[in-house]
Amino acid sequence: MEDKQKHPFFSRPIVWIIAMLVVAGVIFLSSNSGLVPNGEPRRQSRTYQVVLTSNNSDIVGYDVLLQYNPATTKIGTVTSLVDGFEVVQKKADEGVLAVTSIKLPGEKEGSIFSNTPTLEVPVVYEGNEQIRDIEVIARYEKNSTKMVDSKLNILYQSKDVKILLERQDQ
What are the boundaries of each domain within the chain? Predict the structure, then answer.
């Protein structure tokens, strides 16, 4: 039996990979958390990016629903990585954050996304529970994850229209 005094800080490794299918499209989310402290609250910061592919449609706005564990996860201020878009975030419910990004009036440049990082999402995990990453969800009550093009067509997740959440290693 291993002496716990030899390794007082770490108790066990945690590694997981998650892949989900949503409305005929694929959302990939992966994480590798490292080691868990022994009996001490952990605080770990991560940054995620929302990545869009719009299938050659000029996007004027999009909504992204993020689900997380509110007991252990805090989401900071979401910021736009694309010039000419304004971001509004609103807690839809405990554990669900609705993020809307809208093209500013007068913005003339087209916004056709092809695997383009569009939002930065800062996350802080606290506590001793196993970290459960945030994830994009397709629907929550009357809200949905979607894009809106310049002709006001609503584009949902599909084979060609993708809304992904990717972890940025720090």
Answer: 10-168
